[in-house]
C-alpha cells in the first residue's frame, strides 16, 4: 500500500465498536508484517486502536510500518539505521538526478538498470527521485557513501564518485533482491582499499566479451581491481607494436583492451597489468632465443631470461614502456617469481655467466640472488618513471641477496612453498605493504595440478580473512593496516581443464565470499547457507 492514511466515515457507536474489534483481531491475525493501526495524531495504537471519537468527531486511523531491516546485499552493508516507512521501489516515469556532472556516468548506469529516466542535474524534488550527490566531505574514505531512503525518495551521497557508485550497487541489489529498498539510512565503506580479481590470460586466452562480463560482475560486487597476467611461457596475449614478433596468434587487440579499460573505469575498477620477469618469459624468448638463460652445459632454462645480458633488460623495458601507455592506471605488477636459476642448489656454479655479472655489479660477494634483485630494481625504475605503484610476488624477494629490493615495492604474498619464501611477518616487520593472494584459499588453478584444489566460497567465507596471509595462520592485528587487501586469482596451469563458461561458474561463489571478507573481515551475520541463498536471489 502506498498511502500512509485512510479515513473512515463516521458511524454510530455500535458500528464503531464492531469495526474496532474486527480491526484489532485482523491485525493480530495478519502479524507484524502488515504493521498496526495508530491514532490520527501518530501515537502508538497497541492499546487503543482508534482515538477518542468524542474528541475528534470522526476517527482517522493511520497505517504504521514495522522498523525496516538492513538491506540484504553482497557484500553486506556495514551499518544501517532502520526507520518506519514503505521504502522505495522503482516506478515508470521516475527520475535519477545528480548534483554534479561528475556523477553523470553513475546516474545513467543506475537509471538504465532500474528502468528509470536519467534527468541530469536538477535542483527540484519529485516523488520517487533517486538523487546522487557529492558530499564534499574532506578526509573521508573516497569509497564510502550514505544512502537515505525516506519519503518515497532515495538520496545517495559520498565524498567521491567511487563511493556514490557503490551506493548505486547497493540500491540495485536491494531492488533486484527484494523489489524494495528498505526505509532508513545506510552508512557503508570497505575495510580494505584493494579488492581484486586476477586472471591468467597468458596460458589460457579468454574472449574480450567474457572479460567484459567479469568486469560487470566485479563492479556490482564492489571489487576495484582486475589483474591481467598476459605474458608467460605459453603465450603473450596483447597486441604489441614494439615487439610484434612475440605476440601469440590468439590475443587481444589494443582496441579490445581499451574497451575493457573503459568499461572497467566506468565501474571504478583499476586494471593492473603484469609482465612477469625475469621468469615466465617463454613466449618472448621463443622469438628471441639468444636471450634465453643457459646453464653451464649449454642447456636452456625454460622461461628464464639471461639477466646478465643488456639486451634482455632492454627488451623487457621496451614492453614495459609500451604497455604503460596502454594501461594508464596507478598500479603495476612486476612479477619476479620463480626464476629458475635460483632453484638450483648452487646457482653460481650452474650459471657462471650470472655469477660473473653479479660480482662485476656488486663486488666479489655478489651472487645470483643479488643480480636478480638488481634486475627487479631496474625494471621498477622503468615503471616508476610512469608514476605507478608496483607490486612483486613474495618469492621475488630473495633472502640470500644482500642487495635490497626498492623500498616502494609492495609484496603480493601468495605462497610459503617456494624457495626463499619467507613468512609474511618478515615483510610486515620491515614495514612493507602487503596484498593477500594466499594460494591456500584464493588460487583457482585449472586442472588442480600438484597440491592445488579448487577453492570453495564456503571455506573462504568461514575461515579466511585478509590477515590469513600464508596457509591458515593469522598475523597479529597490529599489522592489519599494512595489509592493503587481497585478490582472488585464476591460473591456467592446465588450460583446457575447464571452458571459460565453467570457470565463470566455478568462481562465482568464491568471488562473493572473497569480497565479503575484504569489505568487512568480521564474522558475517549470515550463515553460509543464508549467504548462498542470498547470492542466488541476487543473481
TrEMBL record:
GO biological process terms held by the UniProt record: carbohydrate metabolic process
Keywords: Glycosidase, Hydrolase, Membrane, Transmembrane, Transmembrane helix
Limits of the Glycoside hydrolase family 20 catalytic domain: 195-500
Record-annotated Beta-hexosaminidase bacterial type N-terminal domain positions: 71-188
Residues forming the catalytic site: 338 (proton donor)
Pfam families listed in its UniProt record: Glyco_hydro_20, Glyco_hydro_20b
Region: Disordered, residue numbers: 50-69
Membrane-spanning ranges: 21-40
SUPFAM superfamilies documented for this protein: (Trans)glycosidases, beta-N-acetylhexosaminidase-like domain
GO molecular function, one term: beta-N-acetylhexosaminidase activity
Composition-biased stretches (Polar residues): 50-65
Keyword Signal in record: no
Family from the record: Belongs to the glycosyl hydrolase 20 family.
PANTHER family: BETA-N-ACETYLHEXOSAMINIDASE, PUTATIVE (AFU_ORTHOLOGUE AFUA_2G00640)-RELATED
Protein name: Beta-N-acetylhexosaminidase
Source species: Streptomyces brasiliensis
Amino acid at each position: 500500500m502506498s498511502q500512509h492514511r485512510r479515513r473512515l466515515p463516521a458511524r454510530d457507536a455500535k458500528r464503531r465498536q464492531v469495526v474496532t474489534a474486527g480491526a484489532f483481531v485482523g491485525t493480530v491475525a495478519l502479524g507484524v508484517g502488515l504493521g498496526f493501526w495508530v491514532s490520527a495524531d501518530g501515537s502508538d495504537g497497541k492499546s487503543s486502536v482508534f482515538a477518542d471519537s468524542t474528541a475528534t468527531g470522526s476517527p482517522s486511523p493511520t497505517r504504521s510500518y514495522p522498523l525496516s531491516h538492513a538491506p540484504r546485499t553482497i557484500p553486506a552493508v556495514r551499518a544501517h539505521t532502520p526507520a518506519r516507512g514503505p521504502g522505495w521501489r522503482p516506478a515508470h516515469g521516475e527520475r535519477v538526478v545528480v548534483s554534479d556532472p561528475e556523477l553523470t556516468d553513475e546516474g545513467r548506469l543506475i537509471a538504465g538498470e532500474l528502468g528509470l529516466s536519467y534527468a541530469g542535474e536538477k535542483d527540484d524534488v519529485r516523488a520517487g527521485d533517486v538523487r546522487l550527490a557529492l558530499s564534499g566531505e574532506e578526509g573521508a574514505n573516497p569509497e564510502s557513501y550514505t544512502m537515505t531512503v525516506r519519503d518515497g525518495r532515495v538520496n545517495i551521497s559520498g565524498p567521491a564518485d567511487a563511493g556514490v557508485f557503490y551506493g548505486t550497487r547497493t540500491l540495485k541489489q536491494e531492488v533486484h533482491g527484494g523489489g524494495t529498498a528498505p526505509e532508513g539510512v545506510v552508512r557503508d565503506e570497505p575495510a580494505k582499499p584493494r579488492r581484486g580479481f586476477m586472471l591468467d590470460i597468458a596460458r589460457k586466452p579468454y574472449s574480450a566479451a567474457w572479460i567484459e562480463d567479469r568486469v560487470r560482475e566485479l563492479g556490482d560486487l564492489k571489487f576495484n581491481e582486475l589483474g591481467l597476467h598476459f605474458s608467460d611461457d605459453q603465450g603473450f596475449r596483447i597486441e604489441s607494436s614494439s615487439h610484434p614478433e612475440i605476440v601469440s596468434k590468439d590475443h587481444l587487440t589494443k582496441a579490445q583492451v581499451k574497451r575493457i579499460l573503459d568499461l572497467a573505469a566506468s565501474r571504478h575498477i583499476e586494471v593492473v597489468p603484469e609482465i612477469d620477469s625475469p621468469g615466465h618469459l617463454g613466449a618472448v624468448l621463443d622469438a628471441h632465443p639468444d636471450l634465453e638463460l643457459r646453464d653451464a652445459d649449454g642447456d636452456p632454462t625454460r622461461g628464464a631470461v639471461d639477466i646478465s645480458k643488456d639486451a634482455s633488460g632492454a627488451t623487457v623495458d621496451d614492453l614495459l614502456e609500451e604497455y604503460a601507455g596502454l594501461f594508464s592506471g596507478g598500479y603495476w605488477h612486476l612479477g619476479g617469481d620463480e626464476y629458475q636459476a635460483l632453484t638450483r642448489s648452487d646457482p653460481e656454479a650452474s650459471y657462471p655467466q650470472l655469477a660473473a655479472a653479479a660480482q662485476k655489479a656488486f663486488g666479489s660477494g655478489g651472487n645470483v640472488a643479488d643480480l636478480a634483485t638488481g634486475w627487479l630494481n631496474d625494471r621498477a625504475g622503468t615503471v616508476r618513471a610512469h608514476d605507478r605503484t608496483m607490486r612483486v610476488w613474495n618469492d621475488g624477494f630473495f633472502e640470500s641477496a644482500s642487495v635490497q629490493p626498492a623500498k616502494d615495492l609492495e609484496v603480493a604474498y601468495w605462497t610459503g612453498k617456494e624457495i626463499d619464501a619467507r613468512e609474511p611477518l618478515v615483510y610486515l616487520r620491515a614495514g612493507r605493504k602487503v596484498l593477500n593472494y594466499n594460494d591456500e584459499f584464493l588460487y583457482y588453478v585449472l586442472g588442480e595440478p600438484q597440491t592445488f584444489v579448487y577453492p570453495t566460497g564456503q571455506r573462504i567465507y568461514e575461515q579466511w580473512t585478509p590477515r590469513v596471509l600464508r596457509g591458515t595462520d593469522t598475523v597479529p592485528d597490529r599489522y592489519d593496516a599494512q595489509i592493503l587487501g587481497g585478490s582472488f586469482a585464476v591460473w591456467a596451469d592446465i588450460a583446457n581443464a575447464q571452458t571459460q563458461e565453467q570457470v565463470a561458474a566455478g568462481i562465482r561463489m568464491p568471488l562473493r565470499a572473497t569480497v565479503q571478507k575484504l569489505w568487512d573481515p568480521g564474522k558475517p551475520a549470515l550463515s553460509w547457507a543464508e549467504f548462498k541463498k542470498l547470492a542466488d536471489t541476487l543473481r
